[in-house]
Amino acid sequence: MRILLSAIAFALCAMTAQAQDLQTLLQDNAAQIAKPSRNAIGPVLDDMVATGLPQVPTFLEQWSDKNVWQNEDTGTFFIATKTGDTLTLTDIDTGAQSTAPADGFKQLKPNGGVRRVIGTALVQFQLIDPDTTRRAAALESIARRPEAAQLAPLMASLDGEDDPALRARKENLITILSARFAEDPADRIAAIEALAEETSVESRAVLNQILATKPGVATTLPDANIATQYDPMADPDANHAALVTADLATPLTTPDDIRAAMEAHIIDGRVGNTPTAQLNTDAARATAYATLAAAGTVPPLIGIPERDNALQSHVFFDTYTEDDPAITTAARAALDQVETAVALAQTVDLGLDALSLASIYFLAAIGLAITFGVMGVINMAHGEFIMMGAYTGYVIQLFVPDYTIAILIALPTAFAITFAAGVTMERLVIRHLYHRPLETLLATFGISIALQQLAKNIFGTQARPLTSPAWLDGAWVISDVIQISYIRIAIFFLALFFLALILFILKRTRLGLEVRAVTQNPGMAASMGINPDRINMLTFGLGSGIAGIAGVAIGLYAKVTSEMGADYIVQSFMTVVVGGVGNVWGTLAGASLIGGLQKGIEWFNPSNTLAAQTYMILFIILFIQFRPKGIVALKGRAAAD
Amino acid sequence: MIATLLEVSGVTVTFDGFRAINNLSIQFPPTGLRAIIGPNGAGKTTFMDIVTGKTKPDEGHVIWGEENVSLLGLSESDIATRGIGRKFQKPTVFEAQTVRQNLAMALKNPRSPFAVLTHRRTAKNAAKIEAIADEIGLTDSLTRIAGELSHGQKQWLEIGMLLAQDPRLLLVDEPAAGMTVEEREKTTDILRRAAETRSVVVVEHDMEFVRRLDCKVTVLHEGAVLAEGSLDHVTSNQTVIDVYLGRGHA
Amino acid sequence: MHNTFIARNPSVLWFLAALGLFTFGVTILSEATGLGLISTSFVKTLGKTLCLCLIAIAMDVVWGYCGILSLGHFAFFGIGGYAIGMWLMYARTEAIVLQNFSAQTIPATPQEISDAIGNQIFGVVGSSDFPAIWSFADSLVLQLAMVVLIPGLLALVFGWLAFRSRVTGVYLSILTQAMTLALSLYLFQNDSGLRGNNGLSGLQNIPGFEQTPQATISIVFFLASAFALGAGYLFFAWVISGKMGSVVQGIRDNEARVRFLGYHVESYKLFIFTITAVVSGIAGALYYPQAGIINPGEIAPIASIYLAVWVAIGGRGRLYGAVIGAAFVSLLSSWFTGGGAPDINLGFYTIQWTDWWLVLLGLSFVVVTLYFPKGIGGLFDYLVRKPS
């Protein structure tokens, strides 16, 4: 309707209104302007727009901002600003300024509804505003509240648009608006088909709006655009409830109703002819109720047979709010296509999530893998080294206000501190327990509880923040579906860096050679002049140091608590065990498998992370059955022991 | 009486591309002593691993006893209960337990957990233990903790445990390692006596000890039989001298 | 038969005598007899400690004797607790529901009763239907059977899988830890059918004995726990004394050698793992009615690790060591964390034991592992040797 009106108005304006000034038009509709109502203001605005006068948008804006005053004697409108008791008046058409006492003027205060209508009328001016930010703002306001009236001005504004980004956005919005509001069904279908190429949330929302349905129930299927028809017996309770709501059926007589009926009709210790003491079965109550119903004291029983009769004499369906089947069919096809694309994109997104989780597990586990692989030592305090690294980052941020510098200091400091802690622990405890792996496990567990409680005593139980620098905030948005936060990308590269670093140390340095020698045959290595003690110490330090760095990384995206290490330790063990001991690639494989698996299970059962973890652990237990030595297993006689 | 107690034929094992055993075929009669010699890496220990079920070969057959049972696919404990006993290179006795407990554990009796749980001490078993202890010269040490024994005594105890198992085939890995001359003599006697009623296979390095055993000798080299016969016969074989003795004596 | 067994194991007799004396003493001094020198809550603490001692000897058998460092035995303990807790909660709720219905003029149908009980029990997790695992909750006999059967079956299946594929050493420890973690995570879910993180509560109220004072109930459970500990001690001492003990310790010291002796090592491990799991289940079934509440946090991996700590501190490889360790550490722990220990004022800092006890425990554990691998029980060796 509105489109029609404005089209007529445009036509009229071309023929008649050239010479008019705005004040005249305003005076013609003075009553409407002075006391505007939301419903009646439309035609007046259309007339104003139709004049094509350059002063219209300014007036509309000032009016909306309550800066238009009316001379109470002459009825003339002015744009005015009030200073004290004086008004500075600006003539609406000429822009001539004058002053006058405020007494003789009345301020126009259009209400919210009216202001919104004015805003819509203004959009077409803003769309061709020379200022790009105002044009962009206008486009976003259209995107937020798409209305049919906006389509024509939007299309009209396209030709003059020279900013490529805004032009693309305009085209995009035209498609969205056309899909819903275009006059010609063919235009709408064309627009809908164009939408099928996009995966944005906006276009999916449009398609879903076109496909909006409302449930219905009737005795025969009405002649409407039916989306779905249901089997009445598929969900009998819900369908019956719909019938009851539509006053087409009587509610079921519930056990509570029956019970209430019994209680209300006890006569001489009996209900019907049944003594109350015998009413402790459903059958007895049914008999008693039937007696009451036959006597007319209670309404007849509505049971399952009655319900099913009612259901079967009705049809249950959803109708599209859109009447044209051609359009809904096109939209359905488009939505299916979009959803396929979205599913594909979500798979990619899931892959990225899994990759980032795998990076975290890799970082958390690689230190453990080194110590376990080289020394056969399970370090239960590994998780606490992660925690120490995270707290190091937190403490440094207390003193260094610049987060970027703080992180740059924190990484090496965390490494140094946990390296030192690892070496100390190796010297004081683990050295004495070689060849007693189970006791090492327990002793390091003792250290783990002590460290955890110590952290609790120092830092308290509440979570401490480790804030990432501003440039790591936000996310890399590839599409509405695929996005990944910068922190996770940074962690991914950190993991990659450590993978490369460890491979380099193991394969290209003297230390690495000695470490590999000690791993494979400590006795032989010792006889070749390698000091296994020193190698063990350095390896343990290295493994612990990496845990410290992992702690900083994990602290950046999770909270720093005294228990954070415990959260990662089991996961890390799984990574090492699943991957295969003593092999960097094994740890990488293990981390990828566990990260991928966890995300995969969450994908199937997104509401329940607890269940996901449970299933993952069960999977790992089973996995170990079939590959007890992990994915990348050492072969040969060395592995037999 | 059958002619062959254990027949190994065409067995091959590879570790990471390295052929530890290469198409090995070898037979053992129901009684008698046999020595297997060979340089390091000849596959002696791997051969024992295969027979006792610790290592699964890639191909080949291992056939056992009158019923020609294939040992491949049986578990270590199954193979052991069928009558194959093994003594490791390093003496492996249960050091925390007494000599008597060690022997009692090895004694041929039902091996299922329930049978063991309800096991009662009997005079018959005690007599067997005494007899074996006497055989290995540990009668006075029956109540001692095995960990307190000397190296040689531990070796004997382990041989005693093998005898207690009453196996039909005894695989003995370097029994004389680290023994004094006197102890060696005693060990030789024990093994010879055992070989009167069963097949005893001794894997040895020490030529002097092999000579003392005075039995048929099989030379392994690169996972296959290089030569077989009396010690004099094999030591005069030129290839054996080249690959083994030559190096050893150089 | 027991004559010879006990004659060969005098320490069993000593232990049983000490346990009997202790039980008798506590009973006499408890509020149940009127003397009241030991409060009911402390009787409960002691009763619970006895249950912990029972699971500790099970742990000692599986770890100290068989060499399997299981970090999952508390899962079996928890399952035992849940199994009995289901009956306790069901039966008690049923009594309350019947009480409520009896006030009404129309007697309730079985369905109404069941619905009302379901509503009472599962209201906290937003449900009122009975999950399938509650099918037998109305039967004390069946739930008691579950105390034994479910830990046994779980241990059997898990152990069979793990031992069959020769998972040993630290791998096995991690795997058992994963098992208990999976179980506790599962139970934390609201739709696990066991009330999620609310757990089962009100277990101290024994159905049918509503009128009996807690003083009496506590002493009955205390006596039952003492009896179970004595019986368990006797049973395990018997298991590990004879040839079984030899084989099992042989497996601990050199698994491969035992295998080459012809013993099917996996069966033995499975046997030990399963019977200790069953005993753990029984210990849990006695513990939780005294504790009053069980929730999934109880079977978090940390609990099983503490169990290993007790046994190590007490001295593994000897049953009385496990008992001493469990009793000593758990009582000391509740003394320290309960604020019983006086704070130490250093002038510049006050050591509050509620904060520092875990640090002390962790470090003393390291010291024990390093320097006293035989634990407290090792002290007895000196006592025994000196006279001879």
Quaternary class: heterotrimer
Please bin the fraction of helical residues of chain A.
Answer: 55-70%
Whole-number tally of structural domains of chain C: 1
CATH architecture of the largest domain in chain A: Orthogonal Bundle
Layout of helices and strands:
The complex is a heterotrimer of chains A (641), B (250) and C (388).
Chain A: H1 2-15, H2 22-28, H3 30-34, H4 41-51, H5 55-64, E1 68-71, E2 77-83, E3 86-91, E4 97-101, E5 105-107, H6 112-126, H7 132-144, H8 151-158, H9 164-181, H10 185-195, H11 201-210, E6 213-218, E7 226-230, H12 236-245, H13 255-264, E8 270-271, E9 274-275, H14 282-294, H15 304-312, E10 315-320, H16 325-375, H17 382-399, H18 403-428, H19 437-459, E11 475-477, E12 483-485, H20 486-508, H21 510-520, H22 522-527, H23 532-557, H24 564-579, H25 584-604, H26 609-626, H27 637-640
Antiparallel strand pairs in A: 1-2, 1-5, 2-3, 3-4, 6-10, 7-10, 8-9, 11-12
Helix pairs in contact in A: 1-4, 4-6, 5-6, 7-9, 8-9, 9-10, 10-16, 11-16, 12-15, 13-14, 16-20, 16-23, 16-24, 16-25, 17-18, 17-19, 17-23, 17-24, 18-23, 20-21, 20-23, 21-23, 24-25, 25-26
Chain B: E1 6-15, E2 18-28, E3 32-37, H1 44-51, E4 59-64, E5 69-70, H2 76-81, E6 84-87, H3 99-106, H4 113-117, H5 123-136, H6 151-164, E7 169-173, H7 181-195, E8 199-203, H8 207-213, E9 216-221, E10 224-229, H9 231-235, H10 238-249
Parallel strand pairs in B: 3-8, 3-9, 6-7, 7-8
Antiparallel strand pairs in B: 1-2, 1-4, 4-5, 9-10
Chain C: H1 2-8, H2 10-29, H3 40-65, H4 73-102, H5 110-122, H6 140-164, H7 169-188, E1 200-201, H8 214-241, H9 243-253, H10 255-260, H11 265-291, E2 293-294, H12 301-314, H13 319-337, E3 344-345, E4 350-351, H14 353-371, H15 378-385
Antiparallel strand pairs in C: 1-2, 3-4
Helix pairs in contact in C: 2-8, 3-8, 3-11, 3-12, 3-13, 4-5, 4-6, 4-11, 6-11, 8-11, 12-13
Structural write-up:
The complex is a heterotrimer of chains A (641), B (250) and C (388). Chain A has helices at residues 2-15, 22-28, 30-34, 41-51, 55-64, 112-126, 132-144, 151-158, 164-181, 185-195, 201-210, 236-245, 255-264, 282-294, 304-312, 325-375, 382-399, 403-428, 437-459, 486-508, 510-520, 522-527, 532-557, 564-579, 584-604, 609-626, 637-640, and strands spanning 68-71, 77-83, 86-91, 97-101, 105-107, 213-218, 226-230, 270-271, 274-275, 315-320, 475-477, 483-485. Chain A has 641 residues and is of the alpha+beta class. Chain A is extended and about 110 Å long. Chain B has one domain (6-249): P-loop containing nucleotide triphosphate hydrolases (Rossmann fold). Chain C has one domain. In chain C, strands 1-2 form a two-stranded antiparallel sheet. Chain C has a two-stranded antiparallel ribbon with strand order 3-4. The two termini of chain C are 29 Å apart. The chains are: A alpha+beta (641), B alpha/beta (250), C mainly alpha (388). Chains in contact: A-B, A-C, B-C. At the A-C interface, helix 13, helix 19, helix 24 and helix 26 of A face helix 5, helix 6, helix 7, helix 12 and helix 14 of C.
